[in-house]
Design goal:
single chain; 247 residues; alpha/beta; Rossmann fold; 6-stranded mixed sheet; 38% helix
Amino acid sequence: MANNANAGYDGEAMTRPSLLITRPLASATRFVGRLAEDIQQSVTIVVSPLLEIVPTGAQVDLSPYAGVVFTSSNAVALAPNGNQRPAYCVGHMTAERARAAGWTVAATEQNAENLIAELARTLPVGPLLHLAGRHRRGDIAARLTGLGVKTDVQTLYDQNPVDLSAQALALFEGEGRIVVPLFSPRSAAHFIERAPKFHNVSVVAISDTVADCCQMAGIESVMVVAEPTGKEMLCAVEKILQGTSLA
């Protein structure tokens, strides 16, 4: 998927700033749709997912559980309707999608650490079920169980690595700045493995962990957002692109 992409990347397109979105397709499409109109019109936008969401086909039985934990909107999309059961969510987008799918959002935190701290404070009635992807960080279920909130985990999807597309690789042939928002250490690692060069790359990192990964790989232009949210990532990307396109 590309927007404002010029097949030859010659002339003006060779120096035009670019936005490379490497999120899974559904998330990438939502991110692009939220960009300011002037950004969409003035920069080259290429969507090239580095991770493909592949459902495991697991059947979820909610009957033993008092509620669920969602750390990704991908899990919400693959979970059954909530029928107003409690859901404890990481991220406002995840919470919004959970509400739309019939869940009663009982808590929303910016990251998994904050959610664990909140549940440790409130000690909700369990047991809970963490509906998640195969690659996950923080061992939420075990930590909540250790705090007294019995929590199981069920894997609803895998995140398979994908190569950068030909359109994405063509961006690196030009001289324009390439802005790359990276939302996880795993996506950062895949980008570093697959990008042909970094000299014209500006990364917007959702966390210090992502930023450290990029800087260790030799990417000099790395900005960490103030809060690990989609809104902050969007604002940071727009700020950089507006400054670049006016330069």
